[in-house]
Amino acid sequence: MLEKIQEVLNSLSDLKASNAQELEAIRIKYLSKKGIINDLMSEFRNVAADQKREVGMKINELKTAVQDKINGLKQSVSTQEADQSDLDLTRTPYPIRLGTRHPISLVRNEIIDIFSRLGFSIADGPEVEDDWHVFSSLNFAPDHPARDMQDTFFVEQQPDIVLRTHTSSVQSRVMETTEPPIRVICPGRVYRNEAISARAHCFFHQIEGLYIDKDVSFTDLKQVLLTFAREMFGADTKIRLRPSYFPFTEPSAEMDISCNICGGTGCGFCKHTGWVEILGCGMVDPNVLEANGIDSNVYKGYAFGLGVERITNLKYQVSDLRLFSENDVRFLDEFTAAH
């Protein structure tokens, strides 16, 4: 009988269980009323009196070893089941590489930092907007082309709910709720119903600025934009302002910077003009001030707006706008050093 008990002890090392069902089968095999340990206890009655002490100790040793083995398998099965429950088959395989910020985020944060040092705070607003904040409060005529479904994504009509076409809607919300002086920048994603190409997309990112106070002049606007351009593109950067038209500013201008690739001498990127357009700006139209509850006889202001993708193109010389939203890892890896 001692040999039989030893054989059972030796067999314990080969026991394995990968789930709760297999573990329960092992327990029944050894510890149930019809199990191996119970059978040995039945045979123990027929053991000679002089061997009972030794055989009894061996059976107790076997029972303890079986219980320890089952407890060890139970812990192993529990760990496996926990690991399997947390298993996400869509995760990137190990080792996971350390990522970096997207180039749009890098440039956006740099622009925000520059204007923050100039005293501008950040304002945010909804991307799904009503007609009033996107168009009417900003002096857009009822028949303005921007209101057409060819140019704007309409969510619903009557009342008109649209995806904002510019972050000027945030400026309107700020003017409605804030007493001047106001000095804010409004970063965010905007949407326009345009054909997607290397130079245009149906969504992009803007940062618009607004400053309203007493005795604000176009000279103030020019100096702020010159400071921004030199902080962003280098101390030797020059700017020029060309007359333009926007419904919400008067007078209005487009701002160009001297080409940061050729230094203003002329190249293919700047179409051999030495200048590259980067933003629009102007003095806030009195109609906009009045529509948003600000007395235009007391206060004046300026506003500007720039596309983050446009600035990123200039800074990193990216030729295709679509690369920013395709999430090609090979493209994103190129900006690791810029982080």
TrEMBL record:
Tetramer of two alpha and two beta subunits. Residues 107-334 form the Aminoacyl-transfer RNA synthetases class-II family profile domain. CDD domains: PheRS_alpha_core. It comes from Pseudoprevotella muciniphila. Mg(2+) binds at residue 250. Belongs to the class-II aminoacyl-tRNA synthetase family. Phe-tRNA synthetase alpha subunit type 1 subfamily. The gene is pheS. Coiled coil: none annotated. InterPro entries: aa-tRNA-synth_II, aa-tRNA-synth_II/BPL/LPL, Phe-tRNA-synth_IIc_asu, Phe-tRNA_ligase_II_N, Phe_tRNA_ligase_alpha1_bac, Phenylalanyl-tRNA_Synthase, tRNA-bd_arm. Its cofactor is Mg(2+). Its EC number is 6.1.1.20. Keywords: Aminoacyl-tRNA synthetase, ATP-binding, Cytoplasm, Ligase, Magnesium, Metal-binding, Nucleotide-binding, Protein biosynthesis. GO terms for molecular function: ATP binding; magnesium ion binding; phenylalanine-tRNA ligase activity; tRNA binding. One of its GO terms (cellular component) is cytoplasm. Binds 2 magnesium ions per tetramer. This is Phenylalanine--tRNA ligase alpha subunit. It is found in: Cytoplasm.
